[in-house]
Amino acid sequence: MTTPPPSQVATIRLLLTAIAFLIGVIAALVAGILQQAGHRPMPQTIEYGCGAFAATVIFVFSVFSFIGVRKNSSD
Questions:
Q1: pLDDT at res. 71
Q2: Among 8, 35, 36, 37, which residue's CB has the most CB atoms within a 10 Å radius?
Q3: pTM summary value
Q4: Phi, psi (5° rounding) for residue 5?
Q5: DSSP notation for 1-38
Q6: Which residues contact 13 (CB under 8 A, 6 or more apart)?
């Protein structure tokens, strides 16, 4: 199996990073909307949104890392 050229690898990483951040933004919006629907104060709503964003981005990065791991075989 051949490996893709370095420029293509960089493009793929950039796209996966953008996807992770977009999923994080969606999670932050949902968390903020749910907090606001519960009549929470605005600072608490922002706090929950930021926490949801950070946790989601870290989770998505770890999933991408787990999926992208290749085992080095010596045979």
A1: 53
A2: 35
A3: 0.79
A4: -60, 155
A5: -PPPPHHHHHHHHHHHHHHHHHHHHHHHHHHHHHHHHT
A6: none
Cβ distance 43 to 6 under 8 Å?
no
Kindly list the domain boundaries of the chain, sorted by start residue. 18-64
Identify the three-state secondary structure at position 60: helix
Q: Consecutive 10-residue runs of the chain (75 residues): their mean pLDDT?
A: 75 93 97 94 95 97 86 48
- Encoded amino acid at 62, one letter: S
CB half-sphere exposure, 49, CA atoms < 13 A: 17
Distance between CA atoms of 26 and 18, rounded to whole angstroms?
A: 12
Residue found under tokens 């104060």: 41
